[in-house]
């Protein structure tokens, strides 16, 4: 099969097409004939040599795929060859076939193409695990979402909408602000022009954000504390601007705040299966609504994965970037 390997840690040019044997699904796995594979921030970190695959995972990049079941490993029930599915991989998504633990595989939402479905698993699993299951997202909450026009941000905005919470997105320009509001955000803050904490307080009549989804870190941590409501919870998903921060501890104590951090990839198979169960019950029905607004998707041929990485690093995109195999070439993107 065609796959994309990381020749050596480095820039987008480190992604090279290779020919490899089709993986054999192990016990508990299904083999997916990949139509489309989503591109995510962690893929860039892996390519740079900063996010090693967990033990036993494929060294190939790629954390999410959609396609058809091609084969079934021992002990797997509930799937049949030819089923159209999407899955959270432990690696190896940038390939024409991927072996995926069956507990991390979900049906395609009604009305979604395989290209569109490939944009979902990594970000929806991440936000479900952190914002929903750990930080207890509840109806009526206000959630500050940094990087609102990206993959994680878009998933957070839409999960808030389904959960009956109000998302306030943080973006870098008006085009991305419009995009976030179209996805369902109550408001968008342009971080290049506005004071984030002041604007959150104004938008919430002085209450603040009950939850914060942050992928920036560094100096923004103090802003998140200032923008938080009493009893708030800041969910740290990445540290794009700094892995260390000065935290105003007295304000954290006075506001009774929680700051938690997590990465999805090293989580156990049982945890990932529990997240999948939650997505299936709480979110898939809403995603299948014919009026649902899907994320913007730009597509690239699998062999040109390096172009997709360069596009993500340019930070001009809205929504998701997805790689297409020859099998997925006829699928439509939103
Ligand atoms: N913890 C986990 O398990 C987990 C899982 C998935 C992803 N992640 C991490 O989450 C991050 C986002 O991933 P993604 O797939 O959503 O990427 P993405 O689609 O490229 O989105 C990132 C968004 O953040 C904004 N942004 C980028 N750099 C920024 C900065 N320095 N300051 C403020 N905003 C910035 C970008 O827009 P503007 O620059 O225009 O604002 C962009 O909209 C990555 O670092 C990724 O590694 C973590």
UniProtKB/TrEMBL annotation:
Molecular function via GO: NADPH binding; oxidoreductase activity, acting on NAD(P)H
The entry's keywords: NADP, Oxidoreductase
UniProt keyword Oxidoreductase present: yes
Domain Enoyl reductase (ER): 10-323
Highest rank taxon of the organism: Bacteria
Protein name per UniProt: NAD(P)H-quinone oxidoreductase
């Amino acid at each position: 099969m065609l796959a994309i390997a990381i020749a050596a840690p480095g820039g987008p040019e480190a992604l090279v097409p290779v020919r490899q044997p089709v993986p054999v699904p192990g016990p508990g796995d299904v083999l997916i004939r990949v139509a489309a594979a989503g591109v995510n921030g962690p893929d860039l970190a892996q390519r740079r040599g900063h996010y090693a695959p967990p033990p036993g995972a494929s060294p190939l990049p790629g954390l999410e795929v959609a396609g058809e079941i091609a084969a079934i490993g021992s002990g797997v029930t509930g799937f049949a060859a030819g089923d159209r599915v999407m899955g959270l991989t432990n690696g190896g998504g940038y390939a024409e076939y991927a072996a995926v633990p069956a507990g991390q595989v979900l049906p395609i939402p009604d009305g979604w193409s395989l290209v569109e479905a490939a944009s979902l698993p990594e970000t929806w699993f991440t936000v479900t695990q952190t914002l929903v299951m750990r930080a207890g997202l509840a109806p009526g909450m206000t959630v500050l979402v940094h990087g609102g026009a990206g993959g994680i941000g878009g998933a957070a905005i839409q999960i808030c909408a389904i959960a009956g919470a109000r998302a306030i997105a943080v973006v870098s320009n008006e085009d991305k602000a419009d995009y976030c509001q179209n996805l369902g955000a109550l408001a968008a803050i342009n971080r290049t022009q506005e004071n984030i904490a002041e604007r959150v307080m104004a938008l919430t009549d002085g209450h603040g954000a009950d939850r914060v989804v942050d992928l920036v870190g560094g100096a923004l941590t103090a802003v998140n504390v200032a923008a938080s409501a009493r009893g708030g919870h800041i969910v740290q998903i990445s540290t794009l601007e700094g892995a260390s921060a000065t935290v105003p501890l007295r304000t954290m104590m006075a506001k009774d705040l929680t700051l938690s951090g997590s990465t999805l990839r090293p989580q156990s198979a049982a945890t990932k299966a529990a997240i999948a169960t939650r997505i299936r019950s709480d979110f898939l029905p809403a995603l299948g609504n014919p009026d649902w607004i899907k994320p913007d998707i730009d597509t690239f041929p699998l062999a040109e994965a390096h172009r997709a990485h360069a596009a993500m690093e340019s930070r001009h995109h809205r929504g998701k970037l997805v790689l297409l195999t020859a099998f997925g070439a006829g699928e439509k993107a939103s």
